[in-house]
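As a warm-up, study this chain.
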Amino acid sequence: MNQSQNASFQAGQAKGQTQEKTNQMMDKASDAMQSAKESCQEAGQQMKEKAQGAADAVKDTVGINK
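Now compare it with the structure written out below.
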């Protein structure tokens, strides 16, 4: 292999390694975003349930639920 071919080969290897690392980083970012989304959904559900409980308590207090 001559010097030009060797340089081209090494450049190709570096490009492939860079692409692989980029893909790994994108996968990690995607996983982190999915986890954050699930956490937000769970927190939202808990807030909704608490608000409903508070609304029910007020209704019970003023006699609307009877």
